[in-house]
Amino acid sequence: MERALADIAPPAWVTCAPSGDPAEAQRIAAACGLRVVERPGTLRELLAEANGLPVLVLGATDAILHHQLEVERGGRRGEHEPPGFRLTPGMAQLRLQNAIKGDSDPLVRFAELAAGDRVVDLTLGLGGDALLAAHATQARVLGLEAHPVLAACAMASLARAGHRNPRVAAVAARVEVVCADHATWLAQRPARSFEVALLDPMFRAPSAAAPAFELVRTFALHQPLTPDTLLAARRVVTRCVLVKDAAPGHELDRLGLVPLSSRRMPKVVFGRAPAGE
Ligand SMILES: C[S@@+](CC[C@H](N)C(=O)[O-])C[C@H]1O[C@@H](n2cnc3c(N)ncnc32)[C@H](O)[C@@H]1O
C-alpha cells in the first residue's frame, strides 16, 4: 500500500473459509492495510464480533464480502449463510469473453490498444476495464484503487476469474492491483512511462443496479476528476488518457474533452486526452 488510507475508509477484516488459502488472506490484507482474523467459530459468530465492519471471506473458488448494507438492500440470501456480495467479475467477464471471441470493445478501439502497450488503470474498481486492456495488450496492466476494501475485493475477484476458463484466468493474472490514491501515485511517476492511462471516475448519476455495481457504489471514492489529475495523467503517458463518462458526457464537457460514443455501449461515452508534456 503506497500510503495509509485509514482516513478514507472503515477498516475491514479478511479471513479464510475452510477451503481458502491463509497465505492469500495475509497477502491481500498486507497489500490493502486490512486485518487478518482467524475463524475459530462459525461465520455468524465472526460477523457478530466484527460488529458491522465488512468481512472478506476467501474460499477456494469464490470470495464473499459480508457487509451490513447487503442485509438491507437484499442480495445473496441463504438459510445457512449470512448475505454478502459474491465477488465475480460478472459483466466484465462477459465483455472479456466477447473480446476473446474477436469482438471489438469501444475502450480498446478509442485507446488504440495494441500488443505490448503499457496501460495503467487509475480507477480500477473491480477491474472490468483493466481485464479488457490486459487482453488487448497481452501485457501486464497496473490497476490503482484507492479504497482498501475495493482493492481487496478486486484482488480476490481477479484471482478467481475464469476458474473454469483458463484463457480468462490468464488475462486476469496479468492485472496487478495496487491500493493507492492515483493523485499521489501520479506525482511520483516518471513522465511517459505508460502508453495509455484509463480514468473512470464514479458517474455523478449512477444507473446500474447490479450487485457488483452496488458494491463499488457503497465503498468507492466519489470525488469528481479534477483538471489537475487529468494533467498529471497526461504527463505519464505517450499516447493518451482515456476518460469514461455516462452519456451524454457532462463530466467530459467540464474537462474540455469531446464525448466519443459507440453503438456497443450507448450509455457510456469516452473522452480522449492526448499525452502531455
Ligand atoms: C466507476 S469505478 C471504476 C470501474 C472500473 N473501470 C471497471 O471497469 O470495473 C471508479 C473507481 O475508482 C476509484 N477511485 C476514485 N478515486 C480514486 C483515486 N483518487 N485513486 C484511485 N482510485 C480511485 C473508486 O473507489 C472506484 O472504485
Overview of the structural elements:
This protein has 277 residues and is an alpha/beta fold. It has two domains: 6-86, 3-Layer(aba) Sandwich (Rossmann fold), CATH 3.40.50.10480; 90-274, Rossmann fold (3-Layer(aba) Sandwich). Helix content is 36%, strand content 19%. The protein has twelve helices and twelve strands. It has helices at residues 22-32, 43-50, 68-73, 90-101, 106-110, 128-137, 148-160, 166-172, 182-187, 211-219, 227-235, 250-254, and strands at residues 13-16, 35-36, 55-58, 63-66, 85-86, 119-121, 141-145, 175-179, 194-199, 237-246, 260-261, 268-274. A seven-stranded mixed β-sheet has the order 8-7-6-9-10-12-11, sandwiched between helices. Strands 2-1-3-4-5 form a five-stranded mixed β-sheet. Helix 1 packs antiparallel against helix 7 (148-160) and helix 4 (90-101) packs parallel to helix 6 (128-137). It is globular and about 55 Å long. Mean pLDDT is 87; it is low at 1-6 and 70-79. The structure holds S-adenosylmethionine.
What layout of secondary structure does this protein have?
Elements lengths: L12 E4 L5 H11 L2 E2 L6 H8 L4 E4 L4 E4 L1 H6 L11 E2 L3 H12 L4 H5 L8 E3 L6 H10 L3 E5 L2 H13 L5 H7 L2 E5 L2 H6 L6 E6 L11 H9 L7 H9 L1 E10 L3 H5 L5 E2 L6 E7 L3
Parallel strand pairs: 1-2, 1-3, 6-7, 6-9, 7-8, 9-10
Antiparallel strand pairs: 3-4, 4-5, 10-12, 11-12
The structure holds S-adenosylmethionine (SAM).
S-adenosylmethionine binds next to helix 6, strand 7 and helix 9.
